[in-house]
Predict the structure of High-potential iron sulfur protein 2.
Amino acid sequence: MKRSNRRNFLKLSLASVIGITVGNKILVKPAHAADLPQLTEDDPQAKALQYVHESPDSAKVCSNCALIQGNDGDEWRPCGIFPGKAVNANGWCTAWVKKP
C-alpha cells in the first residue's frame, strides 16, 4: 500500500512540475490568487497530498513553505504543487518544505 501512495505522489508531483513549466510559457498575464479558484480538500490531488485548510502544526503552514507563491499576507495564494488553484496561507500538505 505504501508503494502505491508513493507512486501516486511521484506521478502528481511530476504532473505538477510539467503543468507549471508548460503553463508559464502559455500564460499571457500572470495569474493572481484572486483570479484562481480555491483548492478544496476534496480535490483528488489535495487528497493525495493530505492538504488541509488549517495546519495541525502552526510551525508548518503554507505561508512559510518554499512552494507558495504570491504576496505575503494574502489569505489565499497560488502554490507550485497545485497549479491553477489557490491554497489557504494557513493550510498544509505533505509536500511542505521550509522556506530558506
Q: What stands out?
A: The helical segments are 2-26, 44-48. The chain has a mean pLDDT of 84. The two ends are 33 Å apart (CA to CA).
